[in-house]
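Question:
Write out your own:
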Amino acid sequence: MSLRRRGRPPVSSTVAAVGRPIAAATVASQRFEAAVGPLYAPLVRRLVVVLGNEQDAQDLAQDAYLAAFRSWDRFDGADARAWLYTIALRLAFNQLRGRKRLLAALGRVQPQAWVAPSDPDLWAALTGLDPRTRAALLMSAIDGYTQAEIARILGVPAGTVASWISRGRAVLRQGLERDH
């Protein structure tokens, strides 16, 4: 029995579920792993700060990796970290919006506070920030992204990022000075 379709080359019996030959899928998988594999731990750390829970951050990081893998063929190859962070942060913001709606429906205004063991004052001050402000501030201070890069990742104007970072620093400064 021939698997030849009209006008197309024969379909091999070794075609992956995505419609590509297994060899091509394996190469793509290897490239994906090489580009974003080392980013898992830093991504989880950022998501912990945004979501406030390590387990949620790990789950969301897995979702982000799955979404990234599914769209790997559309990645332009420029900055894998920014691309993956964009996917993950958008998923995180969507999850936070969903949480807020659920908590409002349940009659609770805020989720229970959490504190990281390393520096409770810093973590308390960080959790007081809006999630987008917190993400922008951390991406700037810890990850070294420029305001323009953060704006591109978060899909907002660069001026908005500058404002978030400035206000976030001021709020952190006030919160930490009050505690000491």
